[in-house]
Amino acid sequence: MKMLTLLFVLLFATATTTVYDFKLKTIDGKNFDLKKYRGKKLLIVNTASKCGFTPQYAELQKLADEYKDKVTIVGFPANNFGGQEPGANSEIKTFCQKNYGVTFPLSEKVSVKGDDISPLFKYLTTTENPDFTGEIKWNFEKFLIDENGKLIHRYRSQVKPLSPEITSQL
User: Fold this and answer.
1) Choosing from 51, 102, 120, 144, which is the catalytic residue?
2) Residues in domain Thioredoxin (predicted)?
3) pLDDT value of residue 23
């Protein structure tokens, strides 16, 4: 029995090894598979509409436009910090398009910390990388994923999307 349990743990622990292993929903409720971005870098960002960092949407869109051949931005609205993303998915989508011209993919609203953390963000916050691991501290933390689906850098909210810390990695 111990051998079977150990085998299960080993298989399960290695089963989810890249972001491509996660299935998600778009902000419109459609299935969303990150595998379609294989071969291209991803910048995954937890976002919120009523935050001091919300203007970063403009830089995220500019980054998406200027570096579209190198990286895809994917926003993940979350209401984990100060109730700063209270709206429904349709309200979030409208806000992002109307105020910041967002055309990059947005997921449905997710939880990025706590007991109900999304499996993707559980993976992102615990996966080793050269920067740091652990719980997300605030909205607009960024996770840079390489062309093979592996986390290669993580940035706190204060790092702007067009900063050299990010653009030099693209």
Assistant:
1) 51
2) 13-170
3) 86
